[in-house]
Amino acid sequence: MKQLAKSGDLAVDLAGAFDASPNPYVLLTPDLRIAGANQAYLDVTNSTRDAIIGQPLFAAFDSGPGDEAPQNVRQVQASLEKARDTRQRDHLALVRFSIPRATPAGEPVLEERYWSATHTPILNAEGEVIWLLQHTTDITELERLRQSTAATHGAASSTALDAMIGGNVLERARIVQEDNLRLASERNRLVDMFMQSPGFVAVLSGPTHVFQFYNEAYRRLTGHRDLEGLATAQALPEVVDQGFIDLLDSVFETGEPVHGQASLVKLQRSPGEAPEDAYVDFVYQPIRDVDGRIVGVFVQGHDVTDVVKAAERQKLMIDELNHRVKNTLATVQSIAMQTARSHPDPRTFAESFQARLMALSHTHDLLTRSHWEGADLGAVLAHETEAHGPHRMTLVGPPVALDPAAALSFGMIIHELATNAAKYGALSAPEGRVLVDWAVSDQLNPVLTLTWREVGGPPATPPERKGFGSRLIERNVRHDLAGEVKLDYASSGFSAEISAPLDRGRRS
């Protein structure tokens, strides 16, 4: 061989030896197209190179129209694919496969033949499969002899014949082949189960935890990366400093399984993006070989990110609800105490107290519709003044989103202003009207300015003493809204000007 290589004629001589071999060979590409065949293969299959080169193997040879033909094709295809995918030689001890022949009259027919085949992957320097070599042996006559002997003289004679021609080799080969097919089928079902599992599954091999297998759920968890054949530190570099590889090392070294519940892991879901938080329940279990040595780690678990975040949202909502209930109760208590001071008569106390509670309830209704994300100022104004009729209230201003606390405060303020207008101001006169205008200035630090102006009513006079309504307005504006309020009791009618920041959180 070395002399051939030195002479430069190695390729020519190997090709000549390949074609001169009495054993049938066919060379296939990894996608199972015929790339070459020697003369013995052409003779045994009754074909020509021009007819089959470049053709898919199972287009050139389809095993005929019989009921068993598809299964025969599947057997050969499965063996070739196994050799290709595992990079290991695979054998078919016995397969029935029909071959086209011509009758003496020249008519094409399919002749049923029995074959034994060996499929060998041919690798390049990088270990990639570049060819598949199929070596076939036609054992039709031997199989027919065995079958006819069994039919004529019984199973014992057939067994004796097998023993004479090879120690029962055909029967043993057939049993091994059937066992292999059954094991392959069971393995495929197991793989399908893992792949379709809602939980994530991965098989890691060796002390560096190389990915040998992982299912679709694991792919989703890790951003659909191609992990096969990579060590965990290389495949998921963002987890190196998060302690998970240390846990894998511990399982591999001690054989003790490790469990985690709602554990935080930061994973990069898209290339170039920052890692995202995920929460997982998981178990790492050792994988042992037949001698009990630890050879890998089995990873199993569930992505519980949605469950954890839902629990966090629920806790936040409960805390927020507790806060709102306490604030509401404090507001109700304050309204009750101040109303009682201003209305010693039980009947007038009940009317005023009920009206103020209803104002609070109306704003709660608005906030409930938006899931307590806030309310529009115009909607709050319309809600609190609708009892007085739209023809007597003119509301002019742009949409302004109020947070829940500001919405509640404005609801109480507008209720007090409307109540006073109905009792003493413009809304107590038949022709009286109320004009409400608002605007927002300074978009970087937005400030809301609202003007309440009463016209067509009796002259306004300052109260002899400051009532609860005035104190409620001033307290809500200055304390709850962090704003300013100016009340003007002019002879032409009462007016109020309120200014308040809309982004108190950022201003503070």
Task: Tell me what the structure shows.
- By secondary structure, the protein is of the alpha+beta class.
- It folds into 3 domains: 16-193, PAS domain (Beta-Lactamase); 197-303, Beta-Lactamase (2-Layer Sandwich); 309-507, 2-Layer Sandwich (Heat Shock Protein 90), CATH 3.30.565.10.
- Helix content is 46%, strand content 26%.
- The protein has 18 helices and 17 strands.
- The chain has helices at 2-7, 10-20, 39-45, 49-52, 57-60, 69-86, 140-153, 155-166, 169-196, 216-221, 232-235, 244-254, 305-342, 346-369, 377-385, 404-423, 468-480, 504-507, and strands at 25-28, 34-37, 90-102, 108-123, 129-138, 200-205, 210-214, 258-267, 276-288, 294-303, 375-376, 393-396, 401-402, 433-441, 447-455, 484-490, 493-501.
- The chain has a 5-stranded antiparallel beta sheet, sandwiched between helices.
- A hairpin with a 5-residue loop joins strand 1 (25-28) and strand 2.
- Helix 14 packs antiparallel against helix 15 (377-385) and helix 14 (346-369) runs antiparallel to helix 16.
- The two termini are 87 Å apart.
- The model is unreliable at 1-7 and 155-169 (pLDDT under 50).
